Prior knowledge:
6-stranded mixed β-sheet, 7 helices, 28 strands, binds magnesium ion, single chain, 416 residues, alpha/beta
Amino acid sequence: xxxxxxxxxxxxxxxxxxxxxxxxxxxxxxxxxxxxxxxxxxxxxxxxxxxxxxxxxxxxxxxxxxxxxxxxxxxxxxxxxxxxxxxxxxxxxxxxxxxxxxxxxxxxxxxxxxxxxxxxxxxxxxxxxxxxxxxxxxxxxxxxxxxxxxxxxxxxxxxxxxxxxxxxxxxxxxxxxxxxxxxxxxxxxxxxxxxxxxxxxxxxxxxxxxxxxxxxxxxxxxxxxxxxxxxxxxxxxxxxxxxxxxxxxxxxxxxxxxxxxxxxxxxxxxxxxxxxxxxxxxxxxxxxxxxxxxxxxxxxxxxxxxxxxxxxxxxxxxxxxxxxxxxxxxxxxxxxxxxxxxxxxxxxxxxxxxxxxxxxxxxxxxxxxxxxxxxxxxxxxxxxxxxxxxxxxxxxxxxxxxxxxxxxxxxxxxxx
Length: 416
Ligand code: AMP
Ligand code: MG
């Protein structure tokens, strides 16, 4: 059954090809504006009125006719005031000013607003303008930001904080977004015990389910934790079948060459189509990518870092695609390698590394790490140093690439 390893590139291409099949067909739902944050927009949002809807004062000050204050200081008669939320019927005539607040409509006849800081008040009915004012100063003309009917947001973007302001301005109390995929997480292994349990000889705590849970959440999915499966066919059959009810099933462990690695035989039994089962990479070689009907299935190698890396490279793009996002990579950054790296596997390596901002450039330092089981070493990383398969050695000072899975602040936790 062991087929040849794919390169990382061809394995990813295969996953992306499958993602292509669902473009434009992703499920949508309508949610309240307050529920839409971080969801992926599935409609074009049009503005229903001009923004601003009236010539708007951008300052607290006085509306005036600029020709009256060309030779400042100049004195004007103050004939009233306009507050935000009001509309004044009075038109300004020559020699007149009107007190105006930020956000209030500029009265007819006024051609600028002088800010209050550049005025003084000799008496109640008078205002003295201390500096000349240019036509249009401190006035946002009607429709100068956007016009009624303009498309202000396009589908396919994750709704950010500023998107929320745009949606609110456009009157979108309800927003059409993509559905979040439900992602079942199934840890397998006779040796696994629950977090609450003190492991006995030969046992370890299940940690993969928890890192995967976080990865699924961060990728926009709804994680669904299944009970750990034991390394026997009936238990695996039952739990994998259960996991296939979700949009995506992530199985960790049980996919390498051991006698009790039974996940693939169970896939076969259930009619799950395996597209690849080995990728020439480190960590994460025995990664399985499969589909069943319209469900997506990943067999992730059991070692914690292998599971982590395989998720980021192969499962994350699928979760994105299911939400109507481009199935893009993690951001790739370039920076200066801080120490020599020797890679003997001959495979593409993705080594946990700390990416931090140096003086005007990024610095990439591999963390001290004892292999794909060692989460304790890897926990100091925020990126994965990419060692291409042809490069047996990278040298300190050379420019290298890393995938960023946490932002730069994580490289220096005191910043958080
Ligand atoms: P496997 O792929 O099942 O052969 O597992 C490879 C290694 O990963 C073994 O040392 C397992 O004990 C370990 N492992 C498997 N599943 C988990 C898990 N959920 N959490 C932590 N370690 C695991
Ligand atoms: Mg196992």
